[in-house]
């Protein structure tokens, strides 16, 4: 009797300390039946990728409000691909202006959800796009 | 991306690839048959890891202590696997796993592997898959495996069946000497740690535990030490590790380590057996003769206990199943 759960890492890279949004997402995903590893603020790319590897995460949610997404997200994606984690669903959230989004999507972020996105939308997106193990 | 075969995953596991270890743990958590299949293939790698269980009430600082412990063990040249268990919601089936956040320095060490687990409904402080995960961490080659229990309190004694050395963590102000003599986790500690020793009441808490231990002294061949530490102020931590190592030495020198591990394997078998019996019960539909019993229970003419006793013969393991099980072993 299989009992698989969607495993999600929620991380805040860089120096941004505003974690209310990330915690709201973590709780919403928990209430949707997912197992959420909340790694907290001030995560280095190494810490984030170690979480994705060791926790066998299906989904990585990166939250950033400091504006450093252009620098940090591609760096993280490089490490993610370097570890061969190509089927992990990587989502971005926080303050990411529309004009910054195309290169991030090209770097491998699959979708970006701005502030005020209904959590139900994020949950549906994950369920529709997550890999099968 | 093509899916990997079990052979490929096995090769990666043997080569020390952390992704394979992580995937194997997911399999046993998810009851994916590949988990058992891989574990059976790894029979040539019996674990020799020292298994440390860390338990105690919520908020005493277990995760912070595990981080400090892991860093010291890594410094000594050990490889360390950590399992951190957090509660699964009985309503949504989901969980927020928040122990890893206290282990920021450990997680990026090459010799460390930190994995969070939701209880997924199991009681007693561990997840159902925790014994299997401990086995996998050992088969992977870790020298030490640290298991941090959920931490909901007094009845978390499951850890003692899975660990070589059980460590009970307390903090000042959580109760008086009457609290200290109640049944439960205070009975299972091989080492007691009073964390947050910088706070008032630490000495008293340590004394109360020591007094409780004194009451049972004649029956103990190992007298659990009581150590005061502060994970955040970094005091007492080396002494804590020394106390744990003394217990490990005691197990080795008294010849009880092997029997402790044999007992652990037996306990794992019984837990696997319970699981299969629970599945039988869950799938029970009450067809045929059993249906009459169920109807009697619903009508109030038979007590649930007598019906349960009388329904047992209805569960027949087909002879073919038993043969298959013997072949697979």
Mind sketching the topology for me?
The complex is a heterodimer of chains A (133) and B (329).
Chain A: E1 7-13, H1 20-31, E2 35-43, H2 45-54, E3 59-64, H3 69-82, E4 89-94, H4 101-107, E5 111-113, H5 119-129
Parallel strand pairs in A: 1-2, 1-3, 3-4, 4-5
Chain B: H1 6-14, H2 18-30, H3 33-41, E1 50-55, H4 62-75, E2 80-86, E3 95-97, E4 112-118, H5 130-140, E5 144-148, H6 159-162, E6 165-170, H7 177-181, E7 191-194, H8 202-215, E8 226-228, H9 237-253, H10 257-283, H11 289-299, H12 304-311, H13 319-328
Parallel strand pairs in B: 1-5, 1-6, 2-4, 2-5, 6-7, 7-8
How large, in whole angstroms, is the Cα Rg of chain B?
22 Å
**DSSP helical segment count of chain B:** 13
What percentage of residues of chain A falls in helices of 4 or more residues?
40-55%
Distance between the termini of chain A: 15 Å
Which labels suit this protein?
heterodimer; A: 133 residues; globular; B: 13 helices
3D structure, described in words:
- The complex is a heterodimer of chains A (133) and B (329).
- With 133 residues, chain A is of the alpha/beta class.
- Helix content of chain A is 41%, strand content 23%.
- Chain A has five helices and five strands.
- Chain A has a five-stranded parallel β-sheet with strand order 2-1-3-4-5, sandwiched between helices.
- In chain A, helix 2 runs parallel beside helix 3.
- The longest helix of chain A has 14 residues, at 69-82.
- Chain A starts with 6 loop residues before the first strand and ends with a helix.
- The model of chain A has no long low-confidence stretch (mean pLDDT 93).
- Chain B has 13 helices and eight strands.
- Chain B has helices spanning 6-14, 18-30, 33-41, 62-75, 130-140, 159-162, 177-181, 202-215, 237-253, 257-283, 289-299, 304-311, 319-328, and strands at 50-55, 80-86, 95-97, 112-118, 144-148, 165-170, 191-194, 226-228.
- Chain B has a seven-stranded parallel β-sheet with strand order 4-2-5-1-6-7-8, sandwiched between helices.
- In chain B, helix 2 (18-30) crosses helix 3 (33-41), helix 2 packs antiparallel against helix 5 and helix 11 (289-299) packs antiparallel against helix 12 (304-311).
- Chain B is globular and about 65 Å long.
- The two termini of chain B are 34 Å apart.
- Chain A binds chain B through residues 1-5, 7, 26-27, 29-40, 44, 46-47, 50-51, 53-56, 83-87, 133, and chain B through 1, 18-19, 22-23, 25-26, 29-32, 88-89, 92-98, 100-101, 104, 107-108, 113-116, 118, 120, 279.
